[in-house]
Amino acid sequence: MTTPMTTTPSPVLGVLPLGFPWATQDPFLFCAYHDDAYPKGNADMGPQDSLAGRDIGQDFSRKDGWSMYHGETVPGFPAHPHRGFETVTVVRKGLIDHSDSLGAKARFGQGDAQWVTAGQGIVHSEMFPLLDSERENPLELFQIWLNLPAKNKMVPPHFTMLWSADMPRLVTHDEAGRQTDVLTVAGQLEGADAPLPPPPDSWAAQPEADVAIWTIRMAPGARWTLPAAKGHGTRRTLYFFKGASVTIGGTAVQSSNAIELRGDVAAELVNGDVEGEFLLLQGKPIAEPVAQYGPFVMNTQAEIMQAMQDYRRTQFGGWPFGDSAPNHGRDPKRFAVHPDGREEVPA
Asked: Pirin N-terminal domain spans which residues (predicted)?
């Protein structure tokens, strides 16, 4: 009698080239990777270099390796509204100045993350001050949009800071001593400390949602196994944004690709001959209709129309600052002031 052979299914479901923004899967809506080589800063915390040839207020050109985006003096995104989802901003290099219609403000970066539940409506600005006038001001960040389920679309907005020193990390070495570092913005990873709690109304706060946001850095030639997801039906995408090549469960993939992975099996990663970096987005789908118009994400077109009417009527509480693109001065100290006036600084 012959025993049938069993084969382990490949963890790789598909590979898609990275664009701008990066393609996402439910429960995620959007992922943008900004990697700007900003020059020295001027007296106004904008670039010393000339802005000639840029479409100021709408500059996504990456001319000379950087963009002004919607900024006119300081690069960034002046006051704009959101409703019906969450923004998670992970800043790997540089600083962001946040201000919002709740009256909150913050300067964060150098590995920090900010998590904003827009809920029923918030207006915020995200500016990139160039504080150093003697050296270049590199900025590197991810902005991720995480959907809210219908029952939480209209919750009160919420503002959370996740400081770099508080975020759980896992550092492992393979048999040859080659290192892999994993930073967990959200989601539990065996061997790392308990994850920081997400905002209370987030999809990530539901245990069955199995949401994970991790960054992974692998030394040349390093081996590390991404564990299987805990939740049934969990979707996961691994964004390979820096490096040369990686082999995942026996499948070779080049850099600058998004790799859709099975959630129910572990995936061994074998990095190529240069350091590799990855972003993992994982979660159980919300599996509800999505209606989107720009910064509003609801379940129906009628709700989108209502969002637009509400914003025109109320401005989601109004803008408490005198400038649509406020910055927080030249002191590089990171801080947060919450809507109730509570002040917070990283350890």
From this structure: 70-146
Instruction: State the pLDDT at residue 9.
Output: 79
The token pair that represents 229 in the structure block = 């997801």
Those residues whose C-beta lies under 8 Å from the C-beta of residue 279, and which sit 6 or more positions away, are 31, 33, 142, 213, 214, 215, 216, 238, 239, 241
The 10s digit of each residue's pLDDT in 33-64 is 999 999 999 999 999 999 999 999 999 999 99
**12-283 maps to which CATH number?**
2.60.120.10
For residues 43 and 133, give the distance between their C-alpha atoms in angstroms, rounded to a whole number. 8
304 — phi, psi (to 5°)? Answer: -65, -45
| Among 95, 221, 100, residue whose Cα is nearest residue 158 | 100
Distance CA 34, CA 142 (A): 6
Distance CA(240)–CA(149), nearest Å, equals: 28
pTM of the model: 0.95
Collapsed DSSP state (helix, strand, coil) of residue 194: coil
Contacts of 45 (CB under 8 A, 6+ apart): 73, 74, 129, 130, 131, 327, 330
What gap in Å lies between CA 262 and CA 284, rounded to an integer? 12
Which residues sit opposite 34 in a β-bridge? 141
**Residue 128 CB neighbour total at 10 angstroms:** 28
Residue keyed to tokens 């992922």: 31
Q: Tokens at residue 183, please? A: 């930073």
Minimal CA–CA distance to 102: which of 117, 90, 87? 117
Task: Find out whether 85 and 115 touch, Cβ atoms under 8 Å.
Answer: no
- For residue 60, what are the contacts with CB-CB under 8 A and spacing of at least 6? 20, 67, 69
Query: Any idea where the domains of the chain sit in the sequence?
Result: 12-283
